[in-house]
Write a structure and sequence with these properties.
By secondary structure, this protein is α+β, with helices and mostly antiparallel strands. It has a domain of 67 residues: SH3 type barrels (Roll), CATH 2.30.30.520. 30% of the residues lie in helices and 34% in strands. A five-stranded antiparallel sheet has the order 4-3-2-1-5. The longest helix is centred in the middle third of the chain and has 13 residues.
């Protein structure tokens, strides 16, 4: 028996196929939160910060996505005021989903 065949004996065995994914989905649904409404002052502050941002700027942004608040630090690759979104890498973030933003 060669080493590859011998190693296959010790690979993890998933007796209940799909259970891990189902548990992960259940935990994800359980940890969802409601979207918090921003007051006018916070909206103005975010709007002012968005006006100062340009392509290539490093930003730290907290935004709402699929029931969760996520924080991402990256370089702005695209900024589209017409369609009201900015792109950080491959992530498209709409202005209405932004909870806080800070230039680095």
């Amino acid at each position: 028996m060669n080493n590859i065949q011998r190693a296959k004996q010790f690979l993890p065995f998933d007796a209940m196929k799909g259970l891990t994914e189902a548990l992960r989905e259940r935990d994800e649904r359980r940890t969802r939160v409601e979207r918090r409404e921003l007051d006018e002052g916070e909206k103005e502050r975010i709007s002012a910060e968005l006006c100062r941002i340009a392509r290539g700027d490093e930003v730290e942004i907290c935004f709402y996505s699929s029931g969760h608040y996520l924080t991402l630090s990256a370089s702005v690759t695209d900024l589209d005021p017409t369609y009201r979104y900015l792109r950080l890498g491959s992530e498209r973030i709409y202005f209405s989903d932004i909870y806080s933003i800070r230039r680095m």
